[in-house]
Amino acid sequence: MKGEENALWSIFGYLLSGLIFWGGVGWGLDRWLGTSYLLLVGLLLGMGASLYLVWLRFGRE
Questions:
Q1: How many domains does the chain have?
Q2: How far is Cα 61 from Cα 50, in angstroms, rounded to an integer?
Q3: What percent of the chain has pLDDT over 70?
Q4: Domain residues for 35?
Q5: Three-state SS for 57?
Q6: What is the pTM of this model?
Q7: Quick one: pLDDT at residue 60?
Q8: Predicted local distance difference test score (pLDDT) of residue 7
Q9: SS (H, E, C) 19-35
């Protein structure tokens, strides 16, 4: 039970950190370049990368 709970928190952490990091990169590039679409690109990239990391860590067991 405790191992499953730790795995769920790890998955949540991967998903949240990917969104925050890559969303922040997209937001910063939007501010720097004067565009309005890179935040969305960063959020999508972050979610995709996070899901891939979760699959690598937990999906192949």
A1: 1
A2: 17
A3: 95
A4: 16-59
A5: helix
A6: 0.84
A7: 72
A8: 85
A9: HHHHHHHHHHHHHHHCC
CB 36 within 8 A of CB 30: yes
Q: What is the DSSP string of 1-61?
A: -HHHHHHHHHHHHHHHHHHHHHHHHHHHHHHHHT-SSHHHHHHHHHHHHHHHHHIIIIIT-
Q: With respect to residue 30, please indicate whether it lies within any of the assigned structural domains.
A: yes
Helix (H, G, I), strand (E, B), or coil: what is residue 19? helix
Residue recorded with tokens 């979610």: 47
Residue 1: what residue type? M
pLDDT tens digit string along 26-37? 999 999 999 999
Does 61 or 59 have the greater pLDDT score? 59
Q: Which of 48, 59, 50, 53 is nearest to 15 (CA)?
A: 50
